[in-house]
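Backbone-to-sequence.
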């Protein structure tokens, strides 16, 4: 068969079936039978069934069309993958998430989990119960049963969680059997949570592909994959493998910036809306988008009109695509994260009578805004329920406590050595400012956006792009 003749569609379908069957065989051999739901029918696939299906499909394909067998096609696909940097980054991202899940599963088997930290006990099977941790139960409950309100704001309720992730979990969970009415609720919940894990992994892979494209425009293609590696290696990247909103949020944020920078307003608006519907702090993405828009307008005005950019009467106008119409479109697109937040707020108002009832409900968790970062003394682990704003919590170490331990007058705590009072006052103010600038890991995401700083050097000038994620 010549190289320019394509492989028939039926032969490609058999190749895909062979690969899928081999994957199912590996999963079933390691973790037991795989249960699939096709429509309303339940299909249980054991390792022997998957292996037989793989062998049969490969044999039929080779007998009927021996040219360009599956191993040769896989080798060609690998070569194409190596030349496609965004796709390679996505595959590497998926591998990193699977590695985290495997490490978590092995840790549960070998070390175990303390009963208070177990989370939801949906099944005695540690693999089935693996994603049932902490807030995952809230997202799973919304996906299964929808939102509810008890008529009061002093109790923890699911309206505090934004709808984008639960909506996706509900949709994907149908294929996993989460909507089967005959299945026990714990079983349905576990299936829905694993659907959330699949969403998180795919969203992170997609975000990695976008990040490579964005970094390629700023730091160059040779260094672009390093941006994905750093994002995947960040300690709190473990949440990119969980049925949480982190993966979907970082995907929406990076995709919005990518398309906004290219004036692809439709895509940027859609992703911005997703960000606004994913997390409470998603609306803050509007601010850096407006800054980018203002920067573009300022650069255009400083450049001045070119001859070919003058109107019929000789008046100067902005370059093509950056006139008033483009500025208005950019401003509307930049506001889409806010529109997403307001859309959910309107729904919450209809249910609770309070426009920002979702924010009021966070107080039931002890989450009140007392500064940019909850680092002061508090009895809980998340440090939102601050007990003393004058003392940094012991959990943050002696160095930070010494730096930020200031009294009400802004002076260094304790007795001084008789030095200059003005110097002591400046020292106290610096310590207080430093205490408000410390990031408390994932907790910062509840208040404002974490920022990736991608630095670029173009023609000897230094520019930076900040990406809230």
């Amino acid at each position: 068969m010549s190289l320019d003749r394509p492989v028939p569609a039926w032969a490609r379908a058999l190749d895909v079936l062979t690969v899928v069957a081999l994957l199912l065989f590996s999963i079933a051999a390691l973790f037991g039978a795989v249960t699939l739901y096709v429509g309303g029918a339940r299909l249980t696939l054991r390792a022997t069934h998957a292996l037989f299906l793989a062998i049969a499909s490969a044999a039929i394909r080779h007998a009927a069309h021996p040219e360009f067998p599956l191993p040769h096609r896989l080798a060609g696909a690998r070569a194409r993958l190596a030349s496609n940097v965004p796709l390679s980054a996505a595959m590497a991202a998926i591998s990193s998430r699977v590695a985290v899940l495997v490490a978590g599963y092995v840790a549960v088997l070998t070390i175990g989990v303390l009963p208070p930290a177990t989370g939801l006990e949906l099944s005695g099977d540690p693999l089935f119960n693996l994603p049932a941790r902490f807030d995952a139960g809230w997202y799973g409950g919304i996906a299964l049963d929808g939102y509810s309100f008890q008529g009061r704001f002093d109790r923890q309720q699911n309206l505090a969680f934004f709808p984008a992730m639960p909506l996706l979990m509900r949709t994907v969970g149908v294929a996993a059997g989460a909507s089967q009415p005959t299945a026990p609720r714990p079983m349905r919940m576990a299936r829905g949570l694993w659907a959330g894990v699949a969403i998180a992994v795919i969203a992170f892979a997609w975000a990695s592909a976008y990040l490579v494209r964005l970094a390629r425009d700023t730091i160059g293609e040779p260094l672009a994959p390093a941006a994905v590696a750093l994002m995947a290696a960040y300690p709190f990247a473990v949440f990119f493998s969980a049925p949480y909103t982190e993966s979907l949020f970082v995907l929406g944020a990076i995709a919005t910036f990518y398309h906004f920078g290219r004036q692809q307003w439709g895509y940027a608006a859609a992703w911005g809306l997703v960000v606004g519907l994913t997390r409470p702090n998603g609306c803050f993405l509007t601010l850096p988008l407006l800054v980018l828009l203002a920067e573009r307008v300022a650069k255009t005005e400083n450049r001045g009109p070119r001859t070919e950019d003058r109107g019929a009467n000789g008046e100067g106008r902005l370059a093509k695509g950056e006139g008033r119409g483009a500025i208005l479109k950019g401003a509307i697109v930049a506001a889409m994260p806010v529109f997403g937040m307001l859309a959910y707020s309107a729904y919450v108002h209809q249910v609770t009578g309070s426009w920002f009832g979702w924010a009021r409900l966070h107080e039931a968790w002890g989450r009140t805004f007392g500064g940019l970062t909850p680092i002061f003394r508090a009895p809980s682990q998340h440090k939102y329920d601050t007990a003393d704003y004058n003392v940094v919590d012991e959990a943050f170490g002696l160095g930070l406590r010494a730096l930020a331990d200031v009294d009400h007058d802004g002076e260094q705590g304790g007795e001084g050595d008789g030095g200059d009072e003005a110097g002591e006052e400046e020292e106290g103010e610096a310590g207080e400012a430093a205490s408000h600038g410390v990031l408390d890991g994932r907790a910062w995401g509840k208040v404002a956006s974490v920022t990736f700083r991608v630095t670029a050097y173009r023609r000897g000038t230094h520019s930076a792009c900040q990406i809230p994620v």
